[in-house]
From TrEMBL:
Gene3D superfamilies for the chain: 3.30.70.20, Aldolase class I
Organism ancestry: Bacteria, Bacillati, Bacillota, Clostridia, Peptostreptococcales
Entry EC no(s): 1.3.1.1, 1.3.1.14
The name this protein goes by in its record: Dihydroorotate dehydrogenase B (NAD(+)), catalytic subunit
Organism field: Zhenpiania hominis
Function: Catalyzes the conversion of dihydroorotate to orotate with NAD(+) as electron acceptor.
Length: 417
């Protein structure tokens, strides 16, 4: 049954038909590509980062974690900003905005000094961009005056944000690097400089695989390689952590963050929105599956909203954030024992082995029945639930209170999809 829900959202004063955007990357680097994505249903594009210089790229420049034709766990790229002339990129943005006035055009820019940031901001304004993103985070630039080396320098983040904010009234979004200990500090510096918000996260510095034939990392460029950016499903947990920490900071709690990092499905998108993001950006999933994934994302998100009674995105954006609390505030007065469904159990023994070798030796193995049996050593860690290959064969069961602890109502997750 078709489900229709309103996926429109206001982002930094700009009306968006939906929250799905191409991130600044190879998937949105020329007129034809972006036009095709708009036709497929994407709400907007963070156009591939434009600089004053034209990038000189290496070949090959991609690698992935998980070979043999399986979906990528992670993806590595050694690509820099746009390899097309600056004026061509801005002309493409202008043409796209005029051809697709209801789509959102975000000009992603990167300079190496204040004057370049000002010049690029002026060009973005002349190209009729709706928003401007400042790339403070690319981890594979050949110049230390650009990219993630800038993103970890609070003074440069502040001064470059100020340069753009003083040059144009178009809202400026600072793109954060995860190659840091604390993302709140550069985010605050960007806001102090005049940025309207931030986008996060960019790729993580990585070595994905070692090639034994050439004894270097992958990809191999004339027998050599380098450390560069990691993306894909593997980085989603890291992205969610950084976003939560920023939105829980008193100085950043009202930011309209654009979420990036490992978004492949409607559920991934919903998770970023539930934390408080106002839109999501996608690259790696498009590189695997093409622009059409936006159809699945939109349909899945609408079904999710329908099942939970939401009519608009704003009704659940940020709802998960208050329930993510410091570790010292978690209730530690009880343990939840696992419950085994003997009818669903296939007798594989994975719960027994994992508990015995990796946890608390809380499961005995009944050889005759080929079934697990819980003993008194159980601490309620739920490793068994996580390794079981059968959905809802092992679920949360009895709540046991630690001696002398006050009993209260406990919310227990019951269903594991």
């Amino acid at each position: 049954m078709a489900v229709k829900k309103d996926l429109s959202i206001n982002y930094l004063g700009v009306e968006c038909e939906n929250p799905f955007f191409l991130s600044s990357s190879p998937v949105g680097s020329n007129y034809e590509m972006v036009a095709k994505s708009f036709e497929a249903g994407w709400g907007g594009v963070f156009y591939k980062t434009v600089g004053i210089f034209v990038a000189d790229e290496c070949s090959p420049r991609f690698d992935n974690v998980n070979k043999e034709g399986l979906p990528w766990v992670g993806f590595k790229n050694m690509e820099q900003i746009s390899d097309k002339p600056t004026e061509v990129n801005f002309e493409n943005m202008r043409k796209l905005k005029r051809a697709y006035p209801d789509k959102v055009m975000v000009a992603s820019i990167m300079g190496s000094n204040e004057q370049e940031w000002r010049d690029l901001a002026k060009m973005a304004e002349q190209a009729e961009a709706d928003l401007i993103e400042g790339n403070f985070s690319c981890p594979q630039m050949t110049s230390h005056d650009m990219g993630s080396d800038v993103g970890t320098n609070l003074e440069l983040v502040r001064s470059y944000s100020k340069a753009v904010a003083e040059t144009t009234k178009i809202p400026f979004i600072a793109k954060m690097t995860p190659n840091c200990k604390n993302m709140e500090e550069p985010a605050i510096a960007a806001i102090e400089g005049g940025a309207a918000s931030v986008s996060a996260i960019n790729t993580i510095k990585s070595i994905t695989n070692i090639d034994f034939e050439n004894m270097t990392a992958m990809p191999v460029v004339n027998g050599k390689s380098s450390i560069s950016g990691y993306s894909g499903a593997a980085i989603k947990p890291i992205a969610l952590r950084f976003i939560a920490q920023m939105l829980q900071n008193e100085k950043l709690k009202d930011l309209e963050i654009s979420g990036i990092g490992g978004i492949e499905t409607w559920r991934d998108a919903a998770e970023f929105l539930a934390l408080g993001c106002r839109n999501v950006q996608v690259t790696t999933a498009i590189m695997q599956y093409g622009y059409r994934i936006v159809e699945d994302m939109a349909n899945g998100l609408m079904h999710f909203m329908d099942e939970r009674g939401y009519n608009k995105l704003d009704e659940f954006i940020g709802c998960a954030l208050p329930n993510i609390i410091p570790a010292e505030e978690l209730n530690r007065d009880f343990k939840i024992l696992p419950k085994f469904d003997e009818e669903k159990c296939i007798g594989c023994g994975r719960c027994y082995i994992s508990c015995y070798d990796g946890a608390h030796q809380a499961i005995d193995w009944n050889e005759e029945k080929r079934r697990p049996e819980l003993n008194d050593n159980c601490v309620g860690c739920h490793l068994c639930l996580n390794v079981c290959p059968v959905q809802e064969c092992i679920t949360p069961g009895e709540i046991k209170w630690k001696e002398g602890r006050k009993q209260v109502d406990v919310t227990v997750k019951q269903h594991y999809e």
